[in-house]
């Protein structure tokens, strides 16, 4: 057999990409693809343990672990050993946090859909009101600050357009954003 390595099922030989920029871009795209596939696997099967460690062409380490680094490495090193009670607790807690964050992302996606003027269905509206009912004070404060910033930027852009200066490179007034 030759010294060639093959990628995936397509039998595409892996060869070093000589152009550094192309090599970095390719690494970044492949890393993103791996992380997306690992995330989808975790999303579909809550009880799966996944770990990915990779190094960029520049030697910078990247990793993805679910539910935790310790549980994945522990199972890899000793597949027949049962995790401790504390380990199982931390894993369960990590899985719960992932589910909560996934739920929050789904709600934000739905709010974004509504804000972008897409017609929401009845289910979406019910979820919006449920989301609004559960909003915390700190979330409202952050939203107000964000809306103030958006208002400032929009007013600045409007003044620029009214004055005929459509360039966005001009700094906003009063040291704004």
From TrEMBL:
Keywords: DNA-binding, Nucleus, Transcription, Transcription regulation. SMART domains: MADS. SUPFAM superfamilies: SRF-like. One of its GO terms (cellular component) is nucleus. One of its GO terms (biological process) is regulation of transcription by RNA polymerase II. It holds the Pfam family SRF-TF. One of its GO terms (molecular function) is RNA polymerase II cis-regulatory region sequence-specific DNA binding. It comes from the Eukaryota. Residues 7-68 form the MADS-box domain. It is found in: Nucleus. This is MADS-box domain-containing protein. It comes from Capsicum annuum (Capsicum pepper). The lineage of its organism: Eukaryota, Viridiplantae, Streptophyta, Embryophyta, Tracheophyta.
